[in-house]
Amino acid sequence: MGEKIPLERIDANRWRIPMRYNDDMHVPGMIYADDELIESIVNDNALQQVVNVATLPGIVGHSLGMPDIHWGYGFPVGGVAATDAETGVISPGGIGFDINCGVRLLATDLLYDQVKGKVSELADQLYNTLPSGVGTDGMRILSADEMRDVMVHGAQWAVDAGYGLAEDLEVTEENGCLEGADPSTVSKHALERGRKQLGSLGSGNHFCEVQVVDHIYDQEVANVLGIGRKGQVVTTLHCGSRGIGHQVAEEFINLAESKQKEYGFELVDKQLACLPINSVDGQAYLGAMRCAANFAWANRQLLMHGVRQSFANIFGRKARPKDLPLVYDVCHNIAKMEEYEVDGQLRKLCVHRKGATRSFPAGHPAIPEKYRAVGQPVLIPGDMGRYSFMLVGDHGSMEQTFGSCCHGAGRRLSRTAAKKAIGNKELLELLEKRGITVRVHSKNLLSEESPQAYKDAQQVVNVVHNAGLAKLVVRLKPVVVVKG
DNA sequence: ATGTCC
């Protein structure tokens, strides 16, 4: 303990933690970062967590850290770990507490010039339409039977209930629904928590932002995605499964912890507690995780409907729902069964992505047909004061990172440190000065999400671009921020 | 992230 973790430089963007560091490691670690980002990573406990994850039973390839990596529960946020789907384990801590936390981006027909006179009105409208804050009820209260339908059918349920359009599902990862969701594995308490929260933003780093396309890296790809005009207004939603994801995670972390001895696991950190994928317990977690994931997709579908209503209310016929097409929806806290070549052999793997986005390259069958020639859209929100990015998956992700890349800027300061660094009032003034209109439910939480609490998202996306995991398409600047 | 402690 306390010993410096060795990092072997591979190239400008990659660093390896060799297996010789620790006898318990089954695979080496691999960190994606440039010279500057690696400094902040080394000063965090995240590297030790990459080492810990490398000791998981059945892990293959590398224990991976993306450039936005930072300390998390057991597994780092910004981490990817693949285990053998037949003989390996699944660890609830490797998915995280906010199951299927994710991001979706809607395009509009509007240019910033058409919107700038109504920014304040739009901010109010969005804030009043999208329920936000800790413990708030959602746009729709469900019966227990409806809740079960949401858990099984995901975003499709929302479309059938009148929220959004059928074509939205085509541009949602997994079409907004994972197969194998099993409501019988979700506790009554978890179901009860979710029942009241469908269509709610939540708190913390969750948000709705109106943004403007401010730089185009790849005009051709941007055109295919429908975001190819400089000055074009788009809207990004970032949120997850609210209370149900948290409850499912907590219950299965406790279950896994209580069964480590029974399954014969002796893990270096109890927060890595895991279950054999091929066990009743492992399958139960997967069934419940998928229920929470499907809830999250329905949740984002309802919120998006609220965004479309808000724009229509303010801009009338210039912003009808069909004029605000969903570009794409990605999840970044999830485990998926996917096939990859490992040492020349095609293997079925359980890919844990915790604060990591799927980034399938052009040609992959899981990509919607209209985007297949350019790659899967990858949405990378930055911080509320600077910028966010849209990328598309690149081929290197299949060879290096089990089809994955980063998910955001990555936290640089703890919530406590962030609060010390800047006051809420000062931060609000700073954002307004930059032309960003903010509506926040709980003003005393704003400092925790200040731009300086995060790494520079530009640096983070440059690394995944240069490493061949995803390709830069456009940069977006925030004009309206609505938060819990 | 989270009914920020059942």
Tell me about this structure.
The protein is an alpha+beta fold and 484 residues long. It has a single domain, classed as tRNA-splicing ligase RtcB. Helix content is 32%, strand content 25%. It contains 16 helices and 19 strands. It has helices spanning 35-42, 46-53, 112-115, 119-129, 144-153, 155-160, 166-170, 188-195, 219-225, 242-258, 260-263, 280-315, 396-400, 415-421, 424-433, 457-466, and strands spanning 8-11, 14-17, 29-32, 59-70, 77-84, 89-90, 102-111, 207-216, 232-239, 275-276, 326-331, 333-342, 345-354, 357-358, 377-380, 388-393, 404-405, 437-440, 470-483. Strands 7, 8, 9, 11, 15, 16, 18 and 19 form an eight-stranded mixed beta sheet that branches. A seven-stranded mixed beta sheet has the order 1-2-3-4-5-13-12, sandwiched between helices. A two-stranded antiparallel ribbon has the order 6-10. Helix 5 crosses helix 8 (188-195), helix 5 packs across helix 12 and helix 10 runs antiparallel to helix 12 (280-315). The longest helix has 36 residues, at 280-315. The protein is globular and about 60 Å long. The two termini are 39 Å apart. The mean pLDDT is 96. Its EC number is 6.5.1.-. One of its GO terms (biological process) is RNA repair. InterPro entries: RtcB (IPR001233), RtcB-like_sf (IPR036025). GMP binds at residues 205-209, 332-333, 381-384, 388, 407-410, 483. Mn(2+) 2 binds at residues 238, 332.
